[in-house]
Amino acid sequence: MRTMLRLAGVQKSFGTHHVLRGIDLDVDAGEMVCLIGASGSGKSTLLRAINLLDPIDDGEIVFDGVDIAEPGLDPQPIRQRIGLVFQSFNLFPHMSAEANVMLAPGRVKGLRKAQLKAPVTELFQRFGLGDRMGHYPDQLSGGQQQRVAIIRALAMQPEILLFDEITSALDPELVAEVLDVLRRLREEGMTMILATHEMGFARELADKVCFLDGGRIIEAGPPAQIFDNPQEQRTRQFLSQLL
Amino acid sequence: MTDTSDTTARPGRRAVFEAALRRRSMRIAATSTAAVLLAIVLLVPLAPGWEAVKKSFFNGPVFSKTFPGLLDAFLLDIAIFAWSLPLIAILSLVVAICRDIQRPALYPLKLFATLYTDIFRGLPVILVIYLIGFGVPGLGLPRPWNSPYIWGSLALILVYSAYVAEVIRSGIESIHRSQRSAALSLGLSSGDTMRFVVLPQALRNVVPANMNLVIALQKDVALLSFVGPVEIFRQAGVYKSLYANFTPYVGAALIFLIITIPATRYADYLMHKRRRIEQ
Amino acid sequence: MKTIVTALCATLVATAATAGNDCTAGKTLEDGVLTIATGNPAYFPWVIDDAPETKQGFEAAVAYAIANEMGFEDDAVSWVRTSFDEAIQPGAKNFDINMQQYSITPEREEMVDFSLPYYTSAMAILTTATVVEAVGDPAPEALKGLLWGAMAGTTGAMMIDDAIGPEKDILLYNDNTDVTQAIQAGQIDAALFDLPTALYLSAVTVENGALLGQFPAERSQNPDQFGILMEDGNPLKACVDAAIEALTASGQLAALEAQWLAAATGVPVIE
What we know:
The structure holds 3 protein chains of 3 kinds. Chain A is α/β, with parallel strands linked by helices. Chain A has 9 helices and 10 strands. The longest helix of chain A has 16 residues, at 172-187. The mean pLDDT of chain A is 92. Chain C is an alpha/beta fold. Helices cover 39% and strands 20% of the residues of chain C. Chain C is built from 11 helices and 11 strands. In chain C, helix 2 links the parallel strand 1 (34-38) and strand 2 (77-81). The two termini of chain C are 23 Å apart. The A-B interface holds A 48, 51, 53, 75-77, 79-81, 83-84, 86, 88, 90-94, 103-104, 107-108, 149, 152-153, 156 and B 178-179, 181-189, 192, 196-197, 200-201, 204.
């Protein structure tokens, strides 16, 4: 299997706060990797670093054979190939769901509205929101908003999708509809990295689970190993707190 | 709660109570307003100087002789306002965006924009109009480029753009960082992020605050009279010295109110609407 | 007209001596003191060096002559400063009489009292030598195309409209300094002032200043006459008028005019 993303020795500090202390991680094409760990363990920062929203201090991020952590590199073309979905949806409140989705392909790829209409409609229908395209974010439920946010990221046809605790801000009864979307993307072979607290979901679908603590990956492996037979004391401690 | 149709047909206890309360406060407000008005109408004419004040400030013949001329002069106010406003909109937007620059290479622009807003917000409008309206043409510009209409308006534009730019900047800062992150993560350029994501939201948030500045501008247009143009305030002054009577000023005040009161109400309405949306 | 004035003067001169005594008592703000207001600042040649109490300057000299005629000694005259607005606002005044080149108009007389005129002014066009050269012959037709300015609150603006009827809107300014600044900056070509003020400004204030022409008082239908402003119904009016009549009849007023307001020779007359 082809390695799509390789992280090596990734370091990141905010002031005196050392958030990432040397992260190594390989993600193969078509793989689904789940990052678990307590709040503040560095999961979100890692995802934002891969999307080049927060430039890293040291280390390498090799994406499709190119080190995208190279200082001075224009981040814009790389971000177009790496999608990121946020915990708080971050839809643009002044635009309809459809306009949210069409903005980036229109501006970045220079596609016209008429050209985008069909594929975007198709995406909305595929995720059960065909009748919500004209709605504004404040007219949609949390689950619907998060699905629009995923559609927005997908419309750029990214090669890899990052999800930053996308169900954490949702009411419990709305979590399932969003996880269903992930399940479908998994079936379609999308390469994904998820920071998540949904342990059941991670166990069911992940190819690889990484446990982060204090800015390091303490333990990584297939879900069965991490959840049923953790090797590290800290992993066991974290998992026992959840139960 | 068992029969909902009943509660919709007949007002509930609270609704009855609140309606009574509303009626009562209406009564109090109406009575007190009437009492104050009555007191003014009855007592002010008793003041020993009332006849003189009436003759000087509320002189019917002078009013009717000067009012048409004042209205005519007010057209110049409206013209100055109309050509200044779009230029203020453009300049303030440019300055606000410059102040938001984060790229180190463009830091001088940011510094310049900051200095500009600090200086022009720190000066009285009238001073700027005097200095620019007389000072720049004094450099020896040829006609028509030394016109007080041009330089006086420019002074107004410079001062008001500084205020509007600050309002827009506060609007930009009020847009949460996550909106920028979301736009950038999709691969939008920082320019597109500002243009399509941040600015539309920021500008909408600051419409009420800017409405207040627009109303203030409408009034400050009169300050251009200090460098020559005969707009309503100056025309009222001319009539005042012609008739040795202050009534033309009262006429000018009325004309201003006819414009500014509806505008103020509208600004309040917008502010109220904005607050409702945010709740 | 002339005969009536002379006749009037003759009768008034006879009564002047008795009128003087009535004037010092009971009619002024402060008994025995005549409080006179002038501008802030007061300009040359009306008051020299902004110091009216030195009697230097035409209005300062006339003020003391009137006061003396009314029976006030020099040291019984007290000076205050007012703006035009303060002079016409309703309510208590801080002056008995106010003297700062107020033009007598029928509209103003509705609101305040004016004395008889103490000076009749020609109006003159203040401009620069460059404009004089460009215009050449100051015929009213040639003046229409100029950009005109005047001091707001003077009769100058109305006179420009009446006598010249310029093509472009007149620009108005707060004071002499602003008008001359506008001429200097080329924002206006010319401004209308009373002749003495125009002479002073062209000689002293405006660089390269010149007078384009004058509208002589005796040829104007509505000559610009300066009167002393008093509150409507002021009992002093009769005393002041009597004093001015007496000074006119004795030729003292004309002498003061000759002393302080140099004859405007060489300023071409506009027909």
